[in-house]
Known about the structure:
The protein is an all-beta fold. The chain has a single domain (about 5-95), classed as Domain of unknown function (DUF427) (Metal Binding Protein, Guanine Nucleotide Exchange Factor, Chain A). It has no helices and nine strands. It has a four-stranded antiparallel sheet with strand order 5-6-7-8, with no helix packed on it. A three-stranded antiparallel sheet has the order 2-1-9, with no helix packed on it. A two-stranded antiparallel sheet has the order 3-4. The model has no long low-confidence stretch (mean pLDDT about 95).
Amino acid sequence: MGIMAKAIWEGTVLAESDKTVEIEGNQYFPPSATRTEFFKPSATHTECPWKGTASYYDVEVNGKRNHDAAWYYPEPKSEAKKIKGYVAFWRGVKIEN
């Protein structure tokens, strides 16, 4: 078993799993570990040369919105296929072990 990791923003746990995957210093949480009620799809997309096209979510807790605070790769390139659909965070979302 891995270390239990939690993604927390505004005192609320957004995701929790002991099966995260670390890539480039970011913890990617399995889709089943995310509390989807806090995620709103965003229109933002970015390109990574080796991972592919990232899609983003706004995170919303208690009426506060953190724009594009979570991202994932719905159809990653083959080198990154192990994180398909996995969600990572930034913009003030704390990752705690």
